[in-house]
UniProtKB/TrEMBL annotation:
Keywords: CBS domain. The keyword Nucleus does not apply. This is Histidine kinase. Pfam families: BON, CBS. Residues 150-218 form the BON domain. PANTHER family: CBS DOMAIN-CONTAINING PROTEIN CBSX3, MITOCHONDRIAL (PTHR43080), REGULATORY PROTEIN (PTHR43080:SF26). The keyword Protein biosynthesis does not apply. Residues 1-57, 88-146 form the CBS domain. PROSITE patterns: BON, CBS.
Amino acid sequence: MSREIVCVGVEETVFDAAELLLSARVSAAPVTNDKGAIVGIISEADLIRRAEIGTAARKTWLGHLLDSEASAARAFVATQARRVADVMTRDVVTADEDTTLSELVDLMERHDIKRIPIVRGTVVVGVVSRADLLRALLSREPDRPVLQPTDRALRGNVVDALENRPWTSRWPINVYANDGVVHLWGFVEGKDVRDAYRVAAESVPGVRRVKNHLRTIPASVGMGV
């Protein structure tokens, strides 16, 4: 997670928030009270529909006809209010320091959000964003093996990597290796399975390149056709 936290005070103005987001080059920031506890989050999306710049949403006559007093009032506050407390999102998705990366990704996808404040109790101690997950991915980039395996060993490793997969082809797949280049021959049921074979082979240490000669045929075609 990023420990250099950019927070917006709940008593600050939307102009203060916009300046902070721009200067920190972030798209959203936690909103905290005077005790450092998180009370909301404010994002670019909360600040782009503003009366000052003429971007407030315009409703059709039918929209006005169907609009309730409550929703009209909320729309007015969102575009006219100058206090962060009036425009921020109050239902904040947070996580604690023991949350796994997998759980964080699940939260991001479930709630369609790009960053999650990490809290200790109610105090923000960090933020995990999609960019942090990309950095984590880069840190796991595999290095090329110090010793290149023999072609025979490499072929065996690739065969092992292709076996017992949920998408394994009903037809035999032939694997050949030559100077780190792996050739795949055979028949598979569709392009997705063909791609899966290639990706699995590419993931084997020592494979420099994969030449995918697999041919796709419909699942309904039998062995003898």
